[in-house]
Amino acid sequence: MAGVGGQGIVLASDALAEVAMLAGWDVKKSDALGMAQRGGSVVSHIRLGDKVYSPMIEKGKADILLAFEKLEGARWIGHLAPGGIAIVNDQAILPLSVSSGAEAYPADDEIVGILKSRTERFFVAPGEAIARGLGNIRTLNMIMLGFLSTILPIDLEMWRECIPRYVPSRFLELNLRAFAEGRARAPEMVARLRPVGTTR
Amino acid sequence: MKKLLSGNEAVALGAYHAGVTVAAAYPGTPSTEILENLARFDGIYAEWSTNEKVAMEVGMGAAYGGARALVSMKHVGLNVASDPFFGASVTGINGGLVVLSADDPGMHSSQNEQDNRHYAKFAKVPMLEPADSQEAYELMSLAFQVSEDFDTPVLFRTTTRISHCKSVVDVPEGLQPQPRPIGFKRDRQKYVMVPSHARPRHAIMEERLAKLAAYSESFPHNKMIAGERRLGIVSSGVAFQYAREVFPDASFLKLAMPYPLPEKLVRRFRRQVDQIVVVEELDPFIEEGLRAMGIKADGKRYFPITGELSVETVRKGAPTLRLAPAPSRPGEATAVKLPARPPRLCPGCPHTAANYALKRLSLKAPGLVVTGDIGCYTLAVYPPLQTLDTTACMGASIGQALGLEKAGVQSRIVAVIGDSTFMHSGITPLVDVVYNQGKTTVIILDNGTTAMTGHQGHPATGVSARGEQAQRVPLEDICRGAGVKDVNVVDAFDLPLIESTIRRCTETAAPSVIIVRGDCVLNGKVFGTALAVDADICNGCRSCLRLGCAALVKEGKKVRIDATLCVGEICGVCVLVCPQKAIQMKHKAGAREDAKNAKHEA
After folding, report:
1. Cβ separation of B339 and A71 shorter than 8 Å?
2. How many independent structural domains does chain B possess?
3. Whole-prediction pTM value?
4. Chain B environment of A116 (Cβ under 8 Å)
5. Would an 8 Å CB–CB cutoff place A190 in contact with chain B?
């Protein structure tokens, strides 16, 4: 999972790792905390399998890249295995060098070109639009998990059990709605990306 | 029961189950969450200490009194705490004392990447190092056992990838901490280190080390994993995980107690393999230990001494060592250069205006030198603010400013330090300035929290580690008490007042303090309505972009405000910067008045 500090990536990756553990896998996950969280480029590595050693994914070996922001999707695509799945939120957050006019934010076709150089199995997802529709951009992480849940071999029940542990109870209903919205809008994506693995 | 825990959470739970009743720490990435987690348990006294040295002394005292105590800090914190740490090694303890050092190879959030394993050897104490959260949990109770059995503090070393990575931990259910007898047993030969008492203690320390070396031979978590004979890997910590992945068929000796080294075990392992390669992060600590035993071992010949290791670096470092052919590695995805996204000050950050004022002053004769410190404000070193000229370690800014002044540097000189950092180690240098008749100007950027590490309390906030009300120790009282007569408190968003105050203070011959006060924007502040640029008035001069606020976006020749990022009238610094008055704010005048009133009350 890659994105910008403040987008809720640590929470999303915590929830995913816990769900995977409930589903019976060995899990390790690694975050950037501290200085990197101040609006910088952040990445979480999540590994699941029968036995996991390194908590970090080797460059070029990730099965799935869940990018919360377009530029970060392009930046981290090299961590994806060739032909792997990339789900990229259609949102641009300008780095200071761009907002100050020193550099240009890459155009959409440039970003698509970079994604394509690694994989045909990518999907630019309307995560931001859904979040704004729900009236709260902070629901983006649950929407992204909703997308992800449709291609991971993990039962929906596990997600439903796990999400309440990670969001404050007064926002639970909103977050569950966000997760469901992500899932509901995913068929188009699933058609494009062949899902991986088998349910256990 | 299976739980997904970070290394820090596992350490805290392990310490709780081991019966820790006193915990002390100063926040520092990657160690912070240990104390945050301990503070949630009943029956544990957990404090944010003013700095790591104090934390260590609190831990020592508690251990002298019979309690099990955990002191945790980031690697550089142990430099601060090293004096009492060595002291505890000399006196020994009563209740167990575990000192946790969380190192940061790769410097994710640090100013250096020192390898604190050397501290174990230096202070002659045993060291444990977990390789995942499960081991972090299990080693904690062993650490206390070792501490009490051998009458020594134990160094518990983790690294960023152990502290912050989450992995599955099997936690025994129904475990209740066992209470220990509390009481201080007077023993002046042991606890009062005058030279005549300390000399025999040194001999005791050497005997203790020999006994610990014998113990390490049978330490339960030092593990031999039989594999092929051709390659024997010695490793510890997260490096073990990388090595297991790269060399799945090799033989392994995993050390969970890397100091003192188990010599017999290592020799037995040596006999079972053709060659020994040590995979360890940073310095060749284990490698040199093996070599000192006369055992041929390589390590840094293959793997970098700088930065953190990874599966990639281990794979790349040792192509000739591999037993199985390397899996194919995909090439780089793209050669396109993308705009970088370094961390920055947040929109609405109370540090922005002060740094902007410093930037303006630095452009005017006689120039300005800004000595800096450790905190969010260190980010002002990046463009466009670029105000800081030095940053070395916690609290260094004030002494450095005095040194520059005494060397005869003619520029204006100011020290910039945060509120928590000032409490940590800014007070003694401020006293030094007063005593030695310096004229240093100290700017305390008071955002009311320890922000960079995730908003922990400190003495000037009056909030305890449990988030409860504690006694507040006001910054201005400390400064006045230290003998500074020119103490100013200014609102963090009142740019003209900040600038004029700095100018005045740097022109006087007496020491001065400027407390720039405004709460951290991320610490529960209620945002206002986003401001807007009137495009008809904006002439595209871009003065506002020099603030480095992410909400100000250049669009064509003009600037607009990103309404999703702007925090509105609780900041409004851009309103004050715009020479065309193209950014309007209705409530700004009222807000200023409130701030002034607050200042008079202070």
Report:
1. yes
2. 4
3. 0.94
4. none
5. no
